[in-house]
Amino acid sequence: MADPERAVGARAYHKADRVYLGVPNPVLNDLAKEARAALDLPARIELSGALWATDIHEARVLAAKVLTQARIRPDDAVWDMICSWVPEFDAWAIADHACLAGQKRLIADPSRLDRVEPWTGSDHMWTRRAALVITLPWTKMNHPKPDELAARERILGWAAGYVEDRNWFIQKAVGWWLRDLSKHDPDRVRAFLDAHGVQMKAFSRKEASKYLV
Fold first, then answer.
1. Mean pLDDT across the stretch 63-87?
2. Closest CA to 171 of 125, 198, 213, 204
3. pTM here?
4. Is the pLDDT of residue 166 over 90?
């Protein structure tokens, strides 16, 4: 299952100082699917916590995958665990898998945006970035209801607060959020770029406007 040659490449690619096993993502998907089918929720939470604690790249990815599921009831413990991981983010792949699990919990209970908002002022870059990655579902709504539009505007306010942040990952996250939103509400993205585009890095503006005509 482990592949030492792949592990060397993964370490060079992700640039985070931890153990890499070289286990490919499809294998991790299969393992997560098996765990979700075989274990009850408390056991899955315990497993995810133990996997995360190893600080092995593939184990942390698998920890997130085990908890990535739309329907989980009750899910407060899952949400708490995902939030506890955020301050430890130090590379995009692990962060994005954990945020994908978090997206499901935010959609299940949008009031949890109140817990995410303080992340935007964190000194930890990966925490600031997570506030946009974990809220990506609000970019993908074709017919948003008033409360969903309000949440979208709230998150766009966070993005506006990031435009002067020169960090590449933050600029990339802003461009990513706007690019995905442009597929569903291009006029809102144009308005954002009219107001804030001059403050964004060129590559971020280009990313945001990729699908605008």
1. 98
2. 204
3. 0.96
4. yes
